[in-house]
Amino acid sequence: MKKLPWGIIAGALAIVISLITAGVVAGYVVLSAIAGATNNTVTLFQTSWQTFLFITDCLLVALFVMSIVFYIIKKRATHREPKEENDA
Predict the structure, then answer these.
(1) CA neighbor of 68 nearest in space, from 10, 4, 19, 2
(2) How far apart (Å, rounded) are the C-alpha atoms in residues 71 and 10?
(3) Residue 75 binned pLDDT confidence (cut-offs 50, 70, 90)
(4) Mean pLDDT confidence for 40-51
């Protein structure tokens, strides 16, 4: 796991998360406008694709946090300087 590029993985996940979140919000806004015009109500979990996008978004956020933690652990491990021993 030390050789994986956690920073790149975190960056790619951030892009995907932002796009999926925009899709969830846009879908909710469009469906809310349609529901408002037809005197109906709308929820985030009304259709299967909205539920899928929301669950995928939550899972990817968890993976993003995990990759950030691994990135920090990797950086701290590589930036530690070896201890000097006194041979006196």
Answers:
(1) 10
(2) 8
(3) confident
(4) 90
Q: What is the pLDDT of residue 4?
A: 86
CA 43 centroid distance within chain? 22
Q: For residue 9, what is the DSSP state?
A: H
For residue 53, is pLDDT > 60?
yes
Distance, in Å, from the CA atom of 44 to the CA atom of 48, rounded to the nearest integer, reads: 10
DSSP state of 81: P
Look up residue 43 and give its two tokens.
Answer: 């929820």
Cα-based distances in Å from 41 to 7, 33, 38, 46, 87: 42, 10, 9, 10, 77
Taking the C-alpha atoms of residue 12 and residue 87, their distance in angstroms, rounded to an integer, is 48
pLDDT at 76: 86
Considering only 12-21, 33-42, 53-62, which range has the smallest mean pLDDT? 33-42
What SS3 class is residue 62? Answer: helix
